[in-house]
Amino acid sequence: MSERIKFIISELNKEPFKKNFNLITFDSLSPEDLLQILSDVLAELDSSNKVDIKTEEPEETTVRLLTMLRVLKYDPGTDPVGFRQGLVQGEKQVIHPILEWILKNKEDLKIRAYLARFLVKVEVPMEILADNDIAGLYEQYERLIEEFKAAHKEITNIKERSISAIELRTDIEAMEKEKDIVMKKIDRLSRKLDNVDNKESLLEAARELRLEKERQKELLQQRQGEMELIQRLQQNNARLTQQLSEARQASQGVTAQELVAKLEEELKMNTYIVNEKLSKELENKRREAEILTRIANGPPPSQKDIDKLNEKVAQLSEEISELAQRGLGSKEPSDDKLAPFRQQALITARKKEEMAEKFTQVKSELDALKAKFKSKMEQSGGIGALDETEYKEYVANLKIKSTLYKAKKAQLAALVSESGVLARTIDILKQMQETLKSKQNENDDNELSIDGVSKEELQQQISNLNNKIGAQKAQIAPKLEELKKTKEIHEELLENYKEKKRIYDSKAATLGAAVTKLEQEVKILAKEEQSDESETSLLEARTNILATLLKKIEDEESLTTEKSSINRYKLTQKINEEEKMNNVLKKEQSVVKEMQEKRSKQRDLWYNLGILLECKEKCMEDQRKKDGVIKRTKGTETLVLQ
């Protein structure tokens, strides 16, 4: 919302509006001011909208704005009545989207508004068109509109051709420049070839080489085309083979009469869909299109027209309900013997329509799945599903490639780290070179003479320096060996840690899945227990009711007849059945309770095991941190114990 307002403000502050708005001033505008801004923006598209709305009637303003928006083909959304009311009242929720749409598409809407002045036809009532003179004028008016369309189209084509001519001119100039460059290259090469022996034979060999390369290129293209053709034929063969296998599978165990009956059933279904369902839907769509076309071509309805239509709809609804009540009152059940058959026919027709709708939906889903499967097959190069042997080979190759990938990745990481060290070394050497250059310059400026120093003294100093360097190397060598061993131990520990971490992750995932499954089983058993308890209580209530009835029957035993004795026997039998059912449900309830206790204990054990594994992982991580960390700085490696 804020981005929309910012865009509107930035556009209104530019030419030709120059409103000098900010967020606060624009948000505080009154509805009347918003309508005036909308009218000013529309005036840039069509000068007839340059009106001060203070001097205009509100109804005229609404009609003018709605007409202009209809000409510009603005979509008001799913609630045109609310849009009209919001436009009349100058609501921000309605005005802001209109301003954003117009300012984003200003150039296209200018052309549309210009064309609308000549192409939107004047609506003339049919009563007036009955006059021959007016009808002739209207036909002439329509011919002029067609002539304007043709002229505007021709002008547009001429403009496009002029633009293309300019582009061609620039292309020709660029080609001429390239031609000059090529000619200069040819002249330069010709001058070089003047002093070469056997020039003609070399040129002939170069020409033959060029021809052979072109021929090779053509042969490669031809080979590529043949390969694509072979691939398409293979895909077609695989598709036909699959269709043949499907047809054979479908025909297994099916006789010719059954196939004919199935085809007849499909034919009947398709005939019903085409002749009844689709024809009805097509007719409904045509009616809706006619109504929408009539509404779009007609003038925008006013509030009075809408009120009249609502009153008419209410009146017709009342008449329909009265007629329905009269029809129901006039028909007696004894007279309408066909009512059950009519009702059955309506139910059958409704079921038929539902099945046709379901059939159409399933068929469309099947077609979509087939298209998706076809696209997947084309993307995979026509390769079908792998069998067991091919799948095992694929998995083995995948493992090998995964191992190679990991090794290459490790090499790449080592090379990257080494390149970083080398880059840093280069930087250090460059700095040292600059330092040495500066010192050399200083030494050149303050050059000293070494004539006073003897050769033996210089050799003595050099030997002393070499001895010091050797002593330092001897001191560093054991530490380097120790560092190398420590690095090997660290790498072994790191590999061991990664392996343990992988095992832990796999076990944790397995345990998590098992715990989730057990929790779901516990929830299902709890629901079953609840349902069994409710059913048990219901059966106990039924047992109490039957016991009360039995007692009442025993009290009235002296008044019972032969018929009542039969009823008593049935009730006693039913009570016995309900008691047996109650006992069975009680046994099932006890079994469910025992299983629930076992599953709860098992879930607690799995949960404790997961906590134990997490604790082990934490201990391993702490131990790894205690083993030490190797730090590398400027070509040196240091083992830091924590």
Give a topology summary.
Blueprint: H1 2-12, H2 23-27, H3 31-45, H4 58-71, H5 80-89, H6 92-104, H7 106-119, H8 126-129, H9 132-193, H10 199-251, H11 256-297, H12 303-330, H13 339-379, H14 388-445, H15 455-555, H16 562-626, E1 629-633, E2 636-640
Antiparallel strand pairs: 1-2
What features would you highlight for this structure?
Actin-binding Protein, T-fimbrin, domain 1
Overview of the molecule:
It is found in: Cytoplasm, Cytoskeleton, Cilium basal body. One of its GO terms (cellular component) is ciliary basal body. Residues 134-250, 275-326, 422-535, 568-598 form a coiled coil. This is Intraflagellar transport protein 81 homolog. This protein is mainly α. Among the domains are: 2-120, Intraflagellar transport protein 81, N-terminal domain (Actin-binding Protein, T-fimbrin, domain 1); 200-248; 261-318 and 353-372, no CATH class; 494-624, Orthogonal Bundle (Helix Hairpins). It is built from 16 helices and two strands. It has helices spanning 2-12, 23-27, 31-45, 58-71, 80-89, 92-104, 106-119, 126-129, 132-193, 199-251, 256-297, 303-330, 339-379, 388-445, 455-555, 562-626; strands at residues 629-633, 636-640. Strands 1-2 form a two-stranded antiparallel sheet. Strand 1 (629-633) and strand 2 (636-640) form a beta hairpin. Helix 1 (2-12) packs across helix 6. It is extended and about 140 Å long. Mean pLDDT is 77; it is low at 331-335 and 447-451.
